[in-house]
Specification:
2 copies of one chain form a homodimer. Chain A is an all-alpha fold. In chain A, about 75% of the residues lie in helices and about 0% in strands. Chain A binds a DNA duplex through helix 3.
Chain lengths: ~180, ~180
DNA sequence: GTCTATATAAAGATAGAC
DNA sequence: GTCTATCTTTATATAGAC
C-alpha cells in the first residue's frame, strides 16, 4: 500500500495530502489511518527510508553489474531514470524542515544521512575505484560524484514532449563528457 | 513586499502558506490581500515571473562580462549560487501542476516557457558561441547546457556545515571538467 | 480493513473598523 | 495600508458501524 512512495517522492511532503495517497491507493482516506496510525509525517519518514534503501540497493547492483567506470555510471543512470526523481534540493530545503517540525530534528537528520549514504557515497566510491584502476585522475571526486548525480537527475525535469533523444542517451552523453573531463592530460 | 519571492522560490508553492509570507513581510496575513487581491496562486505566478526575468538579466550580464567560455560559465555559476535555488524538478513536478489546477494550464505553460528561455537558452547560447570560436566541439550542446545547470544548482543542496571548499570553487571544478570533456580529441 | 460520520485545526479569503 | 473578526474550504485525524 506504500504507493504513497510514488506521490511523496515525486511531489514532496507538503504538496501531497493524505487524500491524494488514499485516492492513489484506491481507498477512502479514513481507511489509510488503519495502516498509518502515527499519521502523515511518520508515513513520510517510513516511505523516505524505504525509498533511500531501494536506491542504495539499485545503485549497488548497477555498480556490481559492470566493469568499466562508463558502464557503471550508465547503469546507475539507468536506475535513477527508471525511478521517480531524487530531488535533493527540495528534500533539504522543504521536506526535511517540515518533517523536523512535525516530528523532531533528529528524525530529519537521520533521513538526510541515509540519503547521503544511499546515493552520493556509492557514486563517490565508484569514482575512487576507477581512479585506482587508472581510468580517471581527478582531485575532487566527491564533488564530481555530486555533479554527475545532479546532472542525471536533472533529466527528469524535461517533459516527454520535448525529448529529442531518450533520457538514457542524454545521460550517456553527459557521462562521456565527465569521464573525458576527469582524465589526466 | 515581494519577499514572497524568497519563500516561494526556496520552498515551493505548496510548502509556503500565505501566513508565512505575511510573517516574513512583517504584517498580518489579512493585510497581504490588499496587495494580492487575486490570491496566492496569482502571487506565485507574479513572483515566479519576476524571478525568471531577474535570472535572465543576471545570466546575460554574467555572459557579457566575460570573454572565454570558462569565465562566462563561472560568472553564471556565481550568479546562480548567489540566488535561491532554481529547482526545475520541483517546479515541473509539483509547483506548476498546482498552479495549473488553481488557475489554468496556459498560465502554467507560460511560466514553464519563461523558465526555459531565461535559464537554459542563454546557457546553450554560450556553448554555441564558444563552439563557433573553437573553444569546444560537441554535438549535444543543449544537453550539456542542462547538465551544467543542474550540476551547479545541485551545489545548493549541500548544507554549509558539510562544505569543505566554497560552492563557487566546486562550481569552477565542475566547469573545468565539462569544458575539457567537451573539447575535441 | 474499509466505510460513514464527525471532530479539530489550519489555510485561503473577505468585511469592515481604524 | 493594516488591523480584528469572521467565513469557507481543505486537511489531518478519530470514532464507531459493518
Amino acid at each position: 500500500m506504500q504507493a504513497a512512495e510514488k506521490l511523496f517522492v515525486e511531489r514532496g511532503y507538503g504538496a501531497v495530502t493524505v487524500k491524494d495517497i488514499a485516492k492513489e491507493a484506491g481507498i477512502h482516506h479514513a481507511s489509510l489511518y488503519h495502516h498509518i496510525p502515527d499519521g502523515k509525517a511518520a508515513l513520510f519518514v517510513e516511505v523516505a527510508t524505504r525509498n533511500m534503501k531501494r536506491h542504495h540497493e539499485g545503485i549497488q547492483q548497477a555498480i556490481a553489474g559492470a566493469d568499466t567506470l562508463r558502464e557503471q555510471l550508465q547503469g546507475i543512470a539507468s536506475w535513477l531514470l527508471s525511478e521517480a526523481p531524487v530531488d535533493v534540493v527540495r528534500f533539504s530545503k522543504s521536506d526535511l524542515p517540515a518533517i523536523a517540525q512535525a516530528t523532531d530534528q533528529a528524525t530529519a537528520d537521520k533521513i538526510a544521512s541515509l540519503m547521503h549514504e544511499s546515493t552520493l557515497l556509492p557514486m563517490t566510491h565508484v569514482l575512487h575505484m576507477a581512479q585506482a584502476k587508472g581510468e580517471i585522475d581527478h582531485p575532487h571526486l566527491g564533488n564530481m560524484a555530486g555533479a554527475v548525480f545532479s546532472a542525471i537527475e536533472g533529466l527528469h525535469s524535461i517533459p516527454d514532449q520535448y525529448l529529442v533523444s531518450s533520457r538514457q542517451a542524454m545521460a550517456n552523453q553527459i557521462i562521456d563528457v565527465f569521464i573525458k573531463g576527469m582524465q589526466a592530460d
